[in-house]
Amino acid sequence: AQKVTQAQTEISVVEKEDVTLDCVYETRDTTYYLFWYKQPPSGELVFLIRRNSFDEQNEISGRYSWNFQKSTSSFNFTITASQVVDSAVYFCALSEIRQAGTALIFGKGTTLSVSS
Amino acid sequence: KAGVTQTPRYLIKTRGQQVTLSCSPISGHRSVSWYQQTPGQGLQFLFEYFSETQRNKGNFPGRFSGRQFSNSRSEMNVSTLELGDSALYLCASSQGPSSYNEQFFGPGTRLTVL
Asked: How far apart are CA A53 and CA A27, in angstroms?
């Protein structure tokens, strides 16, 4: 069965610190997608990144970077030089696309608090 | 382009009642998914509709149902409300199937069951 584990429930950092949010997933399929979403205090989830199982290239977008390692079934997210506006709940999610109508499975989320 | 809208934003009901929540997707998006978010269970998938057909359903009792109209707008219904149904209900739309497309989420409907 699919499973997404975000072991860090809460993380608190001070502005300008780097922080890594961990995501470990379980799937028996070879074809799947991984996602990261951000949920700020306003409540609306915001898409951050999508990665398919065949693309293990790391990605960098501004202060955000993602490290996808199939060998360890991990898809970790790093924020460099964190800012107060980064404070939010971050969700990692997994979906298998082999079967029609597959649902997206979310992790429990990591609450990041960045103080000034 | 307008985002995903959900109505109402807040709702208070009593046990045993039923409720209907509405979601208007982004124009051009054919897939609408519904999620329930609670502090204990986190984000759980309810169901997805694509071109008026239910593609998939999560592990929820039959009291939870939904539908999608020809204009892609979607409604979800919860009958015989229980206290445990208190949650934030999120709707998300995407151009294609939600399993591999970026989803755009609405602000949610906060349902409180007394």
From this structure: 11
- For the segment B45-91, what is each residue's pLDDT rounded down to a tens digit? 999 999 999 988 888 999 999 999 999 999 999 999 999 999 999 99
User: In whole angstroms, what is the distance from residue B52 CA to residue A65 CA?
Assistant: 37
CB distance B106 to B23 below 8 Å: yes
- Indicate the helix (H) or strand (E) that contains B74: strand B74-78
Q: How many helices (H) and strands (E) does chain B have?
A: 0, 11
Return d(Cα B21, Cα B112) in angstroms, integer.
13
The amino acid present at A51, given as its one-letter code, is R
- pLDDT surpasses 70 at A89: yes
Question: Based on C-alpha coordinates, what's the Rg of chain B?
Answer: 13
Rounded-to-5 percentages of helix, strand, coil across chain B: 5, 55, 45
Most B-contacting residue of A32, A45, A89 (CB-CB within 10 A), to test interface: A45
CA distance A30 to chain B (A): 14
